[in-house]
């Protein structure tokens, strides 16, 4: 699928975590729609690979888990029209077996990373900040308790920021199971079986693609009346 075509001609876009998966799909969609796109990531290898696929974008190193890196980056950064934060490293597992150090690292990456960006980034009035959460915020899992809590916290953060940062618009996109490199640690067979099982449970009868989520990100960025919203793009997972 291709992203919904909206015009972002002559607009500056920052995609934090845009070197793979959902972030890369969003960066491509914005670029295809005429945007001047910057991808920020802490992985130099992934940035180089992203640049190979999207030669027209700008890449920059940024580790949103480090206060000093975020401060340095945004001290030198321009004012953007639209910003997307999709970066996250979130080890999971049941709360009683997940090491506290891993739990703290997950929160630091996905929640505090987005918080750091939100408090330092400069966005033009009427522009947008879009965070990426996940449907576990509304459909908890016994084996991913922390992920659900982090996603819910992100969505609450966005609603509060929509008030604080007005007239900058702040929204959240909440994906379900999406076929991205997130699952690359699984064998092909196990991954395909998981996707097939998930698709059979979902009303949409398919798992998501990164482009599906990019569609929602561009919709929120390109809709001047959208702020304080959470858009579920989960194949019906929250109701199934």
Describe this structure in words.
- This protein is of the alpha/beta class.
- It contains seven helices and nine strands.
- The chain has helices at 21-32, 44-53, 67-76, 100-120, 145-164, 188-201, 210-221, and strands at residues 12-16, 36-41, 58-61, 80-85, 123-132, 169-175, 178-179, 208-209, 230-233.
- The protein has a seven-stranded parallel beta sheet, with helices on both faces.
- Helix 6 links the parallel strand 7 (178-179) and strand 8.
- The longest helix is centred in the middle third of the chain and has 21 residues, at 100-120.
- The chain starts with 11 loop residues before the first strand and ends in a 7-residue tail after the last strand.
Reading the helices and strands in chain order gives: EHEHEHEHEHEEHEHE
Name the strands of the widest sheet in spatial order.
3-2-1-4-5-6-9
Report mean pLDDT, rounded to a whole number: 93
Helix content: 40-55%
Our measurement of the CA-to-CA distance between the termini, rounded to an integer number of angstroms, reads: 24 Å
The outline comes out as globular
Give Rg in angstroms: 17 Å
Low-confidence stretches: none
**Protein structure class:** alpha/beta
């Amino acid at each position: 699928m291709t992203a919904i075509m909206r015009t972002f001609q002559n607009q500056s876009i920052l995609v934090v975590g845009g070197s793979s998966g959902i972030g890369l799909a969003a960066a491509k969609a914005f670029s295809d729609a005429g945007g001047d796109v910057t991808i920020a990531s802490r992985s130099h290898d992934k940035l180089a690979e992203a640049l190979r696929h999207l030669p027209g974008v700008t890449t920059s190193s940024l580790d949103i888990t480090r206060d000093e890196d975020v401060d340095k980056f945004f001290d030198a950064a321009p004012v953007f029209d639209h910003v997307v934060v999709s970066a996250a490293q979130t080890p999971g597992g049941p709360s009683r077996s997940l090491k506290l150090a891993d739990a703290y690292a997950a929160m630091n990456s996905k929640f505090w990373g987005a918080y750091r960006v939100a408090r330092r980034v400069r966005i033009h009035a009427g522009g947008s900040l879009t965070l990426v959460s996940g449907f576990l915020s509304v459909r908890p899992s016994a084996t991913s308790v922390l992920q659900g809590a982090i996603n819910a916290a992100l969505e609450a953060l966005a609603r509060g920021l929509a008030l604080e940062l007005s007239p900058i618009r702040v929204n959240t996109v909440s994906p379900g199971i999406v076929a991205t490199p997130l699952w690359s640690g699984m064998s092909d067979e196990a991954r395909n079986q998981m996707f097939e099982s998930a698709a059979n449970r979902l009303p949409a009868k398919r798992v998501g693609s990164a482009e599906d989520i990019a569609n929602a990100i561009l919709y929120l960025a390109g809709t001047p009346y959208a702020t304080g919203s959470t858009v579920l793009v989960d194949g019906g997972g929250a109701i199934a």
